[in-house]
Amino acid sequence: MLTNKVFMKKTKRGNILKIVREHYLRDDIWCGSAACHKCPLEENTVLLEDVPKSVSERFPFPHYLLLDTNIILYQMDLLEESAIQNVIILNTVLDEVKHRSAVIYKRLRTILSNPERKFYTFVNEHHKDTYVERMPGESANDRNDRMIRTATEWYEEHLRQEKRKDTSVHIVLLSDDADNRAKASELGLNTCSAAEYMEAAKENYAHLLDKIAQRDVVCASKDPLFPSHLTVMQIHEGIKDGKLMQGGFLASRENYLEGYVRVEGIEKAVLIQGRMNLNRAVDGDVVAIEMLPESEWKAPSDVVLVDEQNDPGDMVEPDPTFSVKPQAEREPTAKVVGIIKRKWRQYCGILIPSHIQGSTRHIFVPAERKIPRIRIETRQAATLLSQRIIVAIDQWPRHSRYPQGHFVRALGPIGSKETENEVILLEHDVPHNRFSEDVLACLPQMPWVITSEDLKRRVDLRGITICSVDPPGCTDIDDALHARRLPNGNIEVGVHIADVSHFIRPGTAIDREAASRATTVYLVDKRIDMVPELLSSNLCSLRGGEERFAFSCIWELDDEANIKHTKCHKSVIKSKNALTYEEAQIIIDDSKQTNEVAASLRMLNRLAKILKKRRTEKGALVLASPEIRFHVDSETHDPIDVKAKQLLETNSMVEEFMLLANVSVAEKIEQEFPECAMLRRHPCPPQSNYEPLVKAAQHQGFEIVTTSGKELATSLDSAVKPENPYFNTMLRILATRCMMQAVYFISGTLQRDEFFHYGLAAPIYTHFTSPIRRYADIIVHRLLAACIGADSTYPELLDKKINSNLCNNLNYRNRMAQYAGRASVALHTHLFFRKRSEDEQAYILFIRKNALQILVPKYGFEGTIYVTGRNNEEIKTGVRFVYDEERQTQRCGNIVFKAFDPVVVRLSLDSTNVQHEKLVFELVEPYIEGFSVKPDGSVSEIEAPKRKSDQTPAKSKKSKKAK
Known about the structure:
The protein is an alpha+beta fold.
């Protein structure tokens, strides 16, 4: 049967086009039920059982569930439970879900692909009895609802006609749309909401009620607690008129009643302060804001404030009083008036037990401090209190102090390393599932060998003395180096990079997976690979003594490291040795070693020093961030020792040539592909970013000039305190925090002067040297291969829009990988201190109104020592601290604390709350009676600047790779 679909379309010129499409209708489409004997049986496996078991007492008879679109969009956590089976998904619903949420659609496709779940897709739009025309004046949504009801009616009648001895199979329309349910009931159909269905769940399935998303607003009090949000239309008009602005909301980690909104075109983020002004915004949301009058502008709080209310009710304590700051320190301040786009996700955390015995209402505390507490209902609290769990936010009504959500699943026991690692990966959105069969099918067959045909297409460098220099235990070796004297007296230097792009071809399953993962994630005790291990640790890894494919960048340099000639080509190499930094350093320093490897390393080291000196003279910054290295047990992988990371000359040697290769390749690909080269830029920070650094240095008698990278580098070099060797490193740590994030971008999307990499003082830069662990480098390899004729281009490689979107994902994944790595260090620090306490040398990094923020160099992390309570009250009898805002000091009696002062602190783990262990910082020295703890003897005096661990400042490099 043939029918026509008619569309009216308006062209850019204003003309109206009438489009007629043929729409075929059939009467032989299989219904998918094993109970049906009329439909022509297809080759597909029968998905719907002939006698389906009922999950709900509300409908105790055998039935199939037919789902409305909103059930899939909002109740996916329930649908993913294996107990939910024998479900019909209409083609109409599938298309609407695909249009409205790519994430939910992907999750639904995963269920549909599993035959054990018995989910069947019925093509209702092409069945003559279930297709309906859109009526005049009917909205697309109303027509879809009518299609769903029509299909439900058809299924009910279709299955009723089966002659069976037992009870016939019925259909239950599951919908969270009250109007759709009312109209279905008028037709005599079985229908209910997801909550109604699960509230009557049989005993074995009662726990599934916790999975129901709470979509209906529950007014727990008569008076609203928050201002109402503007409508979409009001927001649109407000932005158009210039009365409102929009931007991404960033919640503060240190004060739960404070946040910022980054608005495009405004240099400094706009301050949001106070519960009413925050108005239910959650970190990551895109919000509409209205600027407050200048008389109501505020200064950022200097109080560390954590939400500690555990009552699941809706009584709201008044906001604490923020100190009044001088007018000069106040910042443009706004209030949130509407939500443009929620960026809610699933959150990991713990459950706080209710004070009311037998209550089902509980408070969930997310692991991420920037996320507010969430109110959920669960009947499994007794079990879940000892578990890390996942919760999703459903809504945040005006009448609720906290957002409302539902339980998704439990991860495992709190404190278990396996559980906490899973939390880290989930909280930082790190893809860590096993590689799919489609991806593994793209790998080469083993044994893999280099053929004579391969050699014809590459330069054979197997006879050159090439070696790699990496951290100990490194198995994904993606770079190697060589240097040799040429007959003309110059030096040939080569950087050889693993040719990963040979194995990962564009458009394949492994290519799509690598692009999605974007980067390898390094945790303390594990590595989440971007590509399967066969490539990362074997075929692509430039292991010593094994032939490997490489992409080589080779320079001819004079003895002053001036480049005379550069060439790039694909090659075959055979690394002579895979050295660690320490092994390479020993070879360089041992004058008795005169072999080719030693000669090559010494030339490389000498040239690297010249290159580094030249870079710093141009204004390249030498920054710092605290870094540590754990020694873990080979069997349990638990930390058994920890110390600051030691950096050698060889670290810098490798870094300099990686930087040189990245710059050389960037110049080449941008010259050949000026519109679509993938580059990396580091924006110059706005001057306002430097305020904490400048103020901190001023209090110590130093002037930090920030008008250019060169002046910043020079003033940092001169800020030295002989009596405090760690002072300069702390200044550089603060300088690092003033910086903007370096990001990937496509050359054709920015002006040439915006390509600049501020930290490296490089006019142009890219990533070429780590393709095993960074997808950006694979794209750069493909561009470079096309430049030299070693490979051909393909449409997506030269598509500016596609690659700009790719850059957005690369930047996001790279940022999350960094945060995950830091979280892993924090976790292993907790594990290390679980059965010990230590007195350690530390420094004051910041003075806050109610706290000292402390940096412990040995372990590379920060903590807080609270000196007053929330309202500046004394926290210990007889001990009172006085905060001097002008001088940025805390005074107790005759002892004054200033930023960068050395102190001794005791580190221990507070396990009194088994649900949320905390690393505790306590002051040891200077000793304050009634406040400090007495020394345990491990550090008896404030002499840590003399300690070995403090003489080696930790640099900003997390590995040998370039920034």
